[in-house]
Amino acid sequence: xxxxxxxxxxxxxxxxxxxxxxxxxxxxxxxxxxxxxxxxxxxxxxxxxxxxxxxxxxxxxxxxxxxxxxxxxxxxxxxxxxxxxxxxxxxxxxxxxxxxxxxxxxxxxxxxxxxxxxxxxxxxxxxxxxxxxxxxxxxxxxxxxxxxxxxxxxxxxxxxxxxxxxxxxxxxxxxxxxxxxxxxxxxxxxxxxxxxxxxxxxxxxxxxxxxxxxxxxxxxxxxxxxxxxxxx
Length: 232
Ligand code: ADP
Ligand code: ADP
Description:
GO terms for molecular function: ATP binding. By secondary structure, the chain is of the alpha/beta class. The chain has eight helices and ten strands. β9 and β10 form a beta hairpin. One adenosine-5'-diphosphate binds next to α5.
């Protein structure tokens, strides 16, 4: 497990008339073993915060640390290495490779890192996503919901220390979403992983230990042990 933290994180897109301050001095800590949901209206900076915290985008000013490492001190190679070894990603657009089967997509992060999957863990991950019989299918042969579950399984397969998710259950019906989130929460409890999840769904946020609310690029509120009715 690992702690990620931003300090005075500011992100400005564009310049002059078209300048947008997406994040304005955001300081937040995602503690070891904690499941945090980020909520707020569209365009408030949720994705930008997640991308900067995960080292996918660089801040205009301020700092981001993962563990004891300040990301701005890393060159591209070391940053890639850190993402590969420590971080799991669940994107909205799945980013599944079309030429690989579901199972090959799930084990891809392990293959890239040159690690052998823990067979028992892999079996549980695959059982969780409920793809039995479709593991040999390519993404185009799976429904949107099935593709999303493959993306979640891929993020969990390598047991990363920290997981970043952008609407990880956005395309799932409520039952499939609950299964995936329940598994994510159990995995976090069991392995002590840190999870940061962007969501607009109060039910999804109810699985988190804490919800932080962004508005116009600033942190405006925070709630521990959220429930769907309190988040609404
Ligand atoms: P959210 O995830 O909460 O919808 P984003 O982080 O995607 O918000 O965007 C925050 C703000 O930054 C928005 O005003 C958005 O238009 C702007 N923005 C995001 N990405 C870019 C970009 N690549 N270029 C210019 N503006 C951007
Ligand atoms: P989900 O709730 O998982 O999104 P759907 O209701 O969209 O599932 O799909 C139901 C079934 O139809 C799935 O088992 C899936 O295998 C199949 N299916 C859906 N979309 C496609 C597609 N584009 N190509 C092949 N099979 C599909």
